[in-house]
């Protein structure tokens, strides 16, 4: 499974980063970073019921290869902000997504929106990296973590000054996310085994997530205004959209089309 391959490489990568830059250096830089912006607070549905949009800056992916050859993170983020995005997600994995923490820092300096570091977070070191680079929130993928580590990283993220978007794929993972007190839960519509995408995943899991205080975010497979309307109608607070925007020549026009 591609996730296992990514995690194996990520463990080696993080160990090398730790050896190169000690965590106390990152902590020092993080303390000098501007105050974090309220990522979770930005995930508010519009007056017409449409979900807020977390617009993603992503150059490539393992399943799709190169998505955007002409890649300018600053210009893309500026276009997202102009079109009405609520927050910006930046892929920082280098090996599999051709991203970097530098992209995140550039985006943070370009927009006034909250910025999410999207990566495969497996160690508290990466939280300090994220904050030092200017991130306001991080993605924590339940499928990549055990319950104990998930709880630890959610708590440590808060200590570092970051909010968390906790990503789930099934009912068991959803229960874990809610159990650790996640304030924002991302339901990934992509099956990690087959890589097939279905918005029915969000519908199904929302039915089993009654009486929760978390913001619910639908991820993957959202590409049309009709998708936005349907997800808003079932109570989704926000959507994370990457490829559907990044494949468009005019990302601002596409996002305006989705938001309306």
Low-confidence stretches: none
Helix content: 40-55%
- Order of strands across the widest beta sheet? 1-4-5-6-7-8-9-10
- N→C terminal distance: 38 Å
Order of helices and strands: HHEEEHEHEHEHEHEHEHEHH
How large is the radius of gyration? 17 Å
What percentage of amino acids are in beta strands? 15-25%
Q: Overall pLDDT, averaged?
A: 95
What is the CATH C level class, in words? Alpha Beta
Whole-number tally of structural domains: 1
Q: Which class do the helix and strand fractions yield?
A: alpha/beta
CATH topology: TIM Barrel
Tell me the total number of β-strands. Answer: 10
The CATH architecture can be named as Alpha-Beta Barrel
CATH superfamily placement: Aldolase class I
Largest sheet: 8 strands, parallel, barrel
3D shape: globular
């Amino acid at each position: 499974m591609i996730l296992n391959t990514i995690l194996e490489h990520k463990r080696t990568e993080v160990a090398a980063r730790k050896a190169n830059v000690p965590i106390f250096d990152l902590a020092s830089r993080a303390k000098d970073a501007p105050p974090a912006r309220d990522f979770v607070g930005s995930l508010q549905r519009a007056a017409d019921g449409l979900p807020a949009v977390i617009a993603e800056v992503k150059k490539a992916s393992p399943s799709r290869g190169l998505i955007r050859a002409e890649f300018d993170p600053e210009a893309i983020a500026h276009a997202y902000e102009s079109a009405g995005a609520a927050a910006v997600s930046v892929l920082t994995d280098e090996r599999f997504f051709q991203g970097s923490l530098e992209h995140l820092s550039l985006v943070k300096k370009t927009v006034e929106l909250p910025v999410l570091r999207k990566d495969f977070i497996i160690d508290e070191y990466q939280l300090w990296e994220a904050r030092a680079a200017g991130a306001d929130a991080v993605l924590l993928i339940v499928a990549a973590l055990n319950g104990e580590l998930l709880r630890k990283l959610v708590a440590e993220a808060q200590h570092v000054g970051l909010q968390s978007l906790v990503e789930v794929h099934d009912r068991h993972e959803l229960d874990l996310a809610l159990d650790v007190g996640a304030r924002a839960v991302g339901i990934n519509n992509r099956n990690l085994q087959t890589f097939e995408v279905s918005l029915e995943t969000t519908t199904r899991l929302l039915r089993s997530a009654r009486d929760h205080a978390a913001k619910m975010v639908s991820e993957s497979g959202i590409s049309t205004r009709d998708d936005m309307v349907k997800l808003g109608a079932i109570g989704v607070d926000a959507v994370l959209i990457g490829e559907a925007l990044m494949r468009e020549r005019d990302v601002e026009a596409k996002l305006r089309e989705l938001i309306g």
